[in-house]
């Protein structure tokens, strides 16, 4: 009913959530449809019936029988005085004869009624064309013939609408022979009783037919018939009568699928780019950390090498000075030599036999930080001359402390044995 009168569905343009809020929370009715001019209160009565049916109080809603009775009353317009025909009393020609520019009371009454009824159906749309041929109109037509011709003419049209131009109106009055004649009276045309009754019936029948036609059209509109020779079986068809949705065509569905595939492809590309960027950042970070570690190790190694070089140079100078002092004091009467007075060929001063290791002796005698002009073989030969046990005993044997003699000679023998092994390993010049 609302769609027929308003031309749209209730709450058109609102989504499901908003409609739910309007109905359950705000309890707001749909927008009221516009009233038809001069409809005799039908629009107001229809709207009142709709609001009663939409009442939020179930006890206030009318039953189906009450709704049907109200609809019949609205269609028949029983309470509207416009469609109740006003009887026309037979009067003399003298009583209906009016002076120019002064219509009598009957003419004004009938003219007002004709004007009010004219929006429903113009009299020229009801009466056949032969009824308007001058000089007179025969009003004794049979009612059934008149109704049939009127119904045929009305059914061929859409809903009645007010004519743009009413045209001249004729006033009906009886002549001397008892027949009615029409004469122009002040631009108004009163309707006869039969014409008004026929117009009322025609309007009611036409309105019912229009309602039935629109209802059938609405049902056909909601019925979806798929005409595609290759239907998409995986698409679920849903009824669209509630909100006016239309099912998508195959072309629209293919376009939607392409858009979804494009969106998925872009998401995969974005995820791949993000993953590659993250991996590249992690690789750069790892590379930078490794570079910094290597740089720190290089710096530490360089510092260690510099320190070691300086340490070895200092130890070598101390070793040579010790041997020089030992050789210079060999012919002088001096105190006896102890184990700690001997300049042993290692970097650190020796405090025990455990510090006279073969590796420590090799690292000290063959270090690249001293005697850079001598080869390894020349260094070993010079060291062997110093630490040969016979030569060492001949030079320092009588100066050794008796308590340290055994320890000194044993240590000198260990040094000589290490130098001999290193010299035997040398194959070059």
UniProtKB/TrEMBL annotation:
Residues 270-309 form a coiled coil. Keywords: ANK repeat, Coiled coil, Nucleus, Phosphoprotein, Repeat. Gene3D superfamilies: Transferase(Phosphotransferase) domain 1. GO terms for biological process: negative regulation of canonical NF-kappaB signal transduction. It is found in: Nucleus. This is Protein kinase domain-containing protein. GO terms for cellular component: nucleus. Signal peptide: none annotated. InterPro entries: Kinase-like_dom_sf, NFKBIL1. Residues 141-154 have a biased composition (Basic and acidic residues). It comes from the Eukaryota. Residues 96-105 have a biased composition (Polar residues). It comes from Rhizoctonia solani. PANTHER family: I-KAPPA-B-LIKE PROTEIN IKBL (PTHR15263), NF-KAPPA-B INHIBITOR-LIKE PROTEIN 1 (PTHR15263:SF1). Residues 83-111, 135-194 are annotated as: Disordered.
